[in-house]
Give the backbone structure.
Amino acid sequence: MSRDTLSDLLRSVRVRGAVFYYVNCRDDWSAEAPPASEITEAVLPGCEHVMEYHMITKGTGWAAVSGLPPVHLAAGDVVMFPQGDSHVLSSAPELKPLRRSAEWMFATRDAPKPIPIALHHGVVEPGATMPVEEASTIAVCGFLGCDLRPFNPLVNALPRILHLPANRASAWVSRVMDQAATESADRQPGGDAVLERLAEVMFVDAARRYLDSLPADATGWLAGLRDRYVGKALTLIHAEPARDWSVDALAHEVGLSRSALHDRFSRFVGHAPMQYLASWRIQVGTRLLRESNRSVATIALEVGYDSEAAFSRAFKRLVGTPPAAWRRAQ
């Protein structure tokens, strides 16, 4: 691709990271996290969608969500829950978990982060520390937030549980993990900001590694990026959203017939090409409204609308409020 479409999307949906817990475990242990929808305002206020992640910096464990087989975790592994599912981390799959309550998370919302937690023999000790040499497993746990509206096809393209084994990671990812472990343990000034940036980098790497692991017959937005024809069409739309595109024009550029491109694009992405273009134009518009002082009329032209009125109607239909009101709310 001539343009990094994945980066385009990640910039527009504002991925934010926050590290919350530094968990030391020993003996038998099992803990259940509530659904992300119940704790969003406690962990990342203002985010439309929250995903929890865990980086295993020492030892082993298991991760599970209801309805799927448990996943074994080793030192250096990362596990994410992109759909915000309630999930369990444990030393063995069959152990009954203790549930981390949403109420406790709201009560500790303003406490310095990351909060140390000791977990052992069915006992959870928030605020308690455990010497590293005594812990059989250590996990750095946090959250990633992003916008869903007006348009974020990436979240739906990710699985309920996303396991990123250390043995498949590149050397730089291993260094990021080592740095995350160091920052969490040493608690140096500025460490929280470092951990947040590391979490965001980790999410980008997770999306790329998941894309690389998709089977040849996979569909979805990420699989569409990899497809010769759909990927080129997505690149063109992202590169020039204001261009007067039609399905015929896109089909000519990518080398397919009109009907073949429409069918192929819809099968991979879940949207017809012109529907995707309309949604992407509004997504670009929200970024310009938020990050610039340009007038609504100027932004309307920049994203491909003939008039401010046409842009405002399309914006309200997709977002729920007119662009000027949305900008004030931001």
Summary: The longest helix spans residues 191-213. Residues 33 and 100 are 5 Å apart (CA to CA). The mean pLDDT is 86.
